[in-house]
Amino acid sequence: MSALLALALLAFTSAAGSPNAGLKTWGRFSKLPYPGDKAFLYDTFPKDFIWAVGTAAYQVEGAFEKDGKGLSIWDTFTRGGNRMATGDVGSDSYHNIHADIRAIRQLGVSHYRFSLSWSRIFPNGSRGSHNEIGTNYYRNLIRKLKEIRVQPVVTLYHWDLPEHLQQTLGGWANPEMVAIFRDYADFCFQTFGDDVKFWITIDNPFVVARHGYGTGVVAPGIKSDPDLPFRVGHNLLKAHAAVWHLYDRHYRPRQWGKLSIALSSHWINPSHTRLESLRECQCSLDHVLGWFARPLFIDGEYPACMKERLGSRLPSFSREEREQVRQTADFFALSHGAVLSFQLINDSLKFGQHEDLDLRKLLYWVNAEYNKPPIFVVQSGWYVLGNTKTEDPKHMYYLKRFIAEALKSIVIDGVKVIGYTAWSLIDGFEWHREYGIRRGLYYVDFNTPDMKREPKTSATFYRNVIQKNGFPELPENSPAHGTFPCHFVWGVSANSIQVETTPTQFSDHSVYLWNISNNGQLKKLEGFNAPPLRRSPHCADYATVRQQVEEIQKIGVNHFHFSLNWSALVPTGDVAHANTTLLRYYSCFTRQLLQANITPVVTLWHHTRQRSSLPALLDNANRWLNRDTPEAFADYARLCYRELGEYVKMWITLNEPNDEMVSYQEGHQMLRAHAMAWHAYDRDFRPSQGGQVSLALHMDWVEPAFSFSREDVEPAKRVLDFRVGWFAEPIFGTGDYPLGMRSWLRQLNSLDLPVFNEDDHHLVKGTYDFFAISHFSTKLVTHAKEDSYTYTAKLEVQHMIDTTWIMSPRPVVPWGLRKALNWVRERYCDVPVYVMANGVQEDPARFKDSLRVYYLYNYINEALKAYTLDGVNLKGYFAYALNDQRDPEFGLYGQVQQEVIVKASLSNYRNIIRHNGFPILGGRRSSVPAGLSPAAAASCWSGSLWWAS
After folding, report:
1. Is pLDDT of 15 > 50?
2. What is the three-class DSSP state of 112?
3. Calpha distance 456→51 (Å, rounded)
4. Quick one: which of 550, 558, 547, 543 has its CA closest to 492?
5. HEC profile of 127-177
6. What domains are defined for the chain?
7. What tens digit of pLDDT does each residue of 859-888 get?
8. What is the pLDDT of residue 312?
9. Of 597, 662, 654, which is closest to residue 630 (Cα–Cα)?
């Protein structure tokens, strides 16, 4: 947000006063440090924090005509039009109090929010029709809650108005409803109030008014008068206020309870960074939340935006009514979550802005807009499709996200959030969506006589959060302090380098004069040319070599990893016709790196999906499926060893060949090609050159979506077998494909996986000198199938992400690198490991690339934990990549036109290298590794005091 816009925003909020104080929300969050503010917060909630779960009567109770209950507007509404299902039975909670109580107790919540069915207590809506059996149902429920030490949070009205009141009076459209609702509330306070400390008068009056009496989407389904919703909202506000005053005067002195109204809202972000867009966002919230919140929490008036745009369509309060309505809430009861798409139905109330799921910003806005009230989140959660049973990963991770946002709101933003209610306890009738979605923490089998309830994974998760009172920081979440060994390899990787086949030095044959009298510039003499130099080109003639080596030097690394271009070096596939000019350039480049004390690490073939990078003849002949390709690759490797081996001591044969788009047959030939190239070096070049050879595998981490579920551990192992073990096990392990991989494919009756014959087994096994991985991100997998995520049928796994992760566009999950490194250690013992590429995408225009700074710091810190705490034989780390020109969006260097820009991440990475990790300021030095000379030890420890940043 620009400084000019910030000033305008300040002026606007100052002029408008308190009712528009929430307008500062967008500016405030745009200035918070990124991505640090987006990182997950490990902390706990206040000790007295309310953990709750909730339901609504019509959704779960059933027994719609039993024991004297009268009809509600939903009983009638679900029998009209083209609706297919009813809530006649719902989850049958009326007959299953014991099952609901058991579920509530299992969750460990402190409070249970439920609503009273008005027509179960007063069948025709008035006190004269009182139904004692229905009343006793709620007495019994409250008593049983007390027995398990759970406090009731009781909603008087959750959308199920007695049908009689709708038919005889027109429902909430009639002002007479104010007194009728007050009388109903009076009875409830008398009957249940001694055991209830939290009351909600009306749930989501916006939906009642706009969609019950405007769009007709919900009961009573009226849509005849576009102005009727505003009159209904007016009556709802007055009804709530009347009930609040009743409680405040007659019941609070002895019952000591608190009372509010549940208001629900979406969140919205500006489509443009202009003050007009922010005003539209504010107006959108005013039309939904402010419609009811401003009269109650501020001054008994509707928001100015509503009055300006609706004019006479919006009713007005008299002075007496304003005083009656204002300040009639003891806390702010806020609903948020999956209802947002139901809230607005269409774009008309978005006013051209973008709807978003952001509970934290909404909490901050409410706090600012309504004078810092205590906020009780009385409904929050997500939903899953109706065919989902007990595994609900999407629900669980959205629940985690919303709880985490509430925690940040308390700890970071200073908002007084007093409680959180997960919605809902059990599956039930989901209003206009009927049974098409499920929102319960407990799965209800609607086909069983007793409506069997089973805890979902979201229930297990919520119980764990409640037990820990949030997300306490564990040792593995804390940053590590310490250093890597003195001989640790610090590098930077690039997929390729800039190649210059014609030396730029001495290529200009023009003659120049030095303009001594003026500015010292060279002046070209037209018509004169110097005779050509009769000498062979030198490495110093290549300006690109000097430039690239200087850029690498500035990072402070001691190794540089890049790939050769096989198809350009050996265009025909025959090494007898190699491109000697290109070979000379590569030779110069590697030699200059060594002279700059930078060790070259060279990949012979870099796999890319876009192009094969194979020589033309091989590219046209089945590529890797051609049995001649491995032989041709081995010949190409010998050429490179012979011509460049004097300068290159660390070789990668194949970089990331384990792509899921590669067939098993292609992979088999790639393994043979790698092995042939390794043996060629081992036999013919290692004795004289003394280098090392291996391959680099792509290894993003795969984590079980439900870490507490054994059923997800196996799918995670399976994916790692198929993605990494596929290439790793034949080389580093048994000499064959992973047993789990073979058995799974056998179970599928698949013959796709080749069989190693005896020769290939001996050829491939043990062909390594180190284990190199490229690691960028982490995915979650589960065996549960949910249509909204990517399902891999072959492996029978669902891929998903944790919605609390930072995205760019792949998830930023630093601890995934530590787990990947430990997987290598556990599988292949003390094998030397290199992280050959690790980096993150970020907008190339962001030269203060704060995400990349955050990424490198935290991923390297996790690598340090793997080395110091877990005993991984980690030898080196390579940041990816050198520059945006060769590797767009990943570079430590940016570029504007011809100017090279040093990004902030480069300086930060150089600082980590300079300190060889993260030593503690003023801390004692670690023991010097054996075998180091005093000079080497002094060099290792120079600058070893790390300043905390």
Report:
1. no
2. strand
3. 18
4. 558
5. HHHCCHHHHHHHHHHHHHHHHCCCEEEEEEECCCCEHHHHHHHCHHHCCCH
6. 22-467 (3.20.20.80), 489-940 (3.20.20.80)
7. 999 999 999 999 999 999 999 999 999 999
8. 96
9. 654
